[in-house]
Amino acid sequence: PVVSDGFASARNYFTRPSAAISEEEEERAQVLAEATALKKLAVDFLHPELPVVTTDPFACGRNYFTRPSAEEYEEEEAMDDRDEILEDAAALKKLAEDYFYPERPVVSDAALFGRNYFNRPSAPTSEEDEERAQILADAVALKKLAVDYLHPERPVVSDGFASARNYFTRPSAAISEEEEERAQVLAEATALKKLAVDFLHPELPVVTTDPFACGRNYFTRPSAEEYEEEEAMDDRDEILEDAAALKKLAEDY
């Protein structure tokens, strides 16, 4: 390999400042410059979508045809017609896009507002309008009733401040003998249902709402009468003791 010092330097013999300049080199440089310019023009012509690249951030330009000092190359009427035609074309293009793309959102200014021509306060009213409004209100009410009838599982939606009372249980309601008998029958049915549940499901616990409620065994209370003879009670106690002793022996065995 070639070994050189890192601080060594050199220059091109042909491009040194003191080199002799010949006519051929000048022509060669001019030809290369023209070829580069032609190449740039060809690229710009074939690729108009490429952006304009400039190295000077302060460079600016203006339109030759719309500059303030430009001469009027069209008559005033022709210019007005041209502007009007362009506006109509832009409006037609917008209408065509709205027709072919109805899914696009409507874009408007936040400060814009409008009102309905038919229900404005100054709109003339006629009998047909009143009948139409009444028919629409009836149709909405019928639709609501049909929905409530076909879908009873839907919840009732009401205002949080709305209130009501039962017509039959209001304090001022008239009391009849049939209602008293009906209430008595319902109370007896509820009591019978509770007794039937307690009889069929003795495993259910006793539910009480009073924490201070208490009870005692009727048969073992101190004031209970002796419902067995003394000899029978002694025999019973002896049998229970023998059974307990046999159970203990069986467990030990």
Describe it for me?
The structure is a single chain. With about 250 residues, this protein is an all-alpha fold. About 45% of the residues lie in helices and about 0% in strands. The protein has helices spanning about 25-45, 75-100, 125-150, 175-200, 230-250. The longest helix has 25 residues, at about 75-100. The protein is elongated, with a radius of gyration of 54 Å. About 0% of the residues are buried. The mean pLDDT is about 85.
- The coarse silhouette is elongated
Find the count of extended strands (DSSP E, 2+ residues). 0
Radius of gyration: 54 Å
Which H/E pattern describes the elements?
HHHHH
The main sheet comes to: none
Helix segment count? Answer: 5
* Residues in helices, as a percent range: 40-55%
Structural class: mainly alpha
Quaternary? single chain
Secondary-structure blueprint of this entry?
Elements: H1 23-46, H2 76-100, H3 127-150, H4 177-200, H5 230-252
Task: Write out key terms for the chains shown.
about 250 residues, 5 helices, elongated
How do you describe this structure in short?
The chain is an all-alpha fold and 253 residues long. The protein has helices spanning 23-46, 76-100, 127-150, 177-200, 230-252.
